[in-house]
């Protein structure tokens, strides 16, 4: 019975997402959407973004995939200037991280404080995710933009040794 209810809930969630996406995605269909803080979004667009981020944060990979398969921008930012990859990394949602990367998420984007998704994984000691994100060097411009490199960030949190182990 429990399996039947879970299946029914997933079906209803998929129908809801497809309906909402088909009604409201028109103005959000772009590869690298970066929302300025004062951009006025419609209630429907804000709701879509909130649903997408809630799914990423809670590990609902099927919902995240549904959004992305219907053209939702993978690197869209929320009101706090985080991407879904940053949220999924911080909250330890490895299957969501994998899905976002498969859909082309930019692992080098930084939030308002200059932190990347990898830095979020380091803070939360999500080493499987950190290893996955470490496959690309995102520190090329850190010195020029006065942001911390991942090594500097790891040092601040006492995680230098663990970070070095990821490179082996």
List keywords for this structure.
mainly alpha, Serine Threonine Protein Phosphatase 5, Tetratricopeptide repeat, 9 helices, 0% strand, repeat, Ankyrin_rpt-contain_sf, Ankyrin_rpt
| CATH fold topology | Serine Threonine Protein Phosphatase 5, Tetratricopeptide repeat
Number of helical segments with 4 or more residues: 9
CATH domain class:
Mainly Alpha
Count of the domains = 1
Helix and strand pattern: HHHHHHHHH
Estimate percent helicity: 40-55%
Biggest beta sheet summary: none
Question: What number is the mean pLDDT?
Answer: 82
Straight-line distance between termini: 47 Å
| Large-scale geometry | globular
């Amino acid at each position: 019975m429990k399996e039947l209810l879970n299946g029914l809930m997933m079906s209803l969630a998929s129908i809801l997402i497809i309906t909402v996406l088909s009604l409201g995605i028109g103005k959000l269909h772009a590869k690298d959407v970066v929302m300025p803080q004062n951009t006025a979004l419609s209630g429907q667009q804000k709701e879509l973004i909130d649903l997408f981020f809630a799914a990423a944060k809670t590990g609902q990979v099927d919902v995240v995939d549904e959004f992305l398969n219907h053209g939702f921008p993978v690197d869209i930012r929320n009101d706090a200037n985080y991407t879904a990859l940053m949220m999924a990394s911080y909250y330890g949602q490895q299957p969501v991280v994998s899905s976002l990367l498969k859909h082309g998420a930019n692992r080098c984007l930084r939030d308002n404080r200059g932190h990347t998704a990898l830095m979020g994984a380091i803070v939360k000691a999500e080493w499987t995710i950190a290893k996955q994100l470490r496959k690309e060097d995102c520190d090329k411009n850190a010195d020029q933009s006065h942001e911390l490199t991942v090594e500097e960030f790891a040092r601040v949190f006492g995680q230098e040794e663990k970070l070095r182990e990821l490179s082996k």
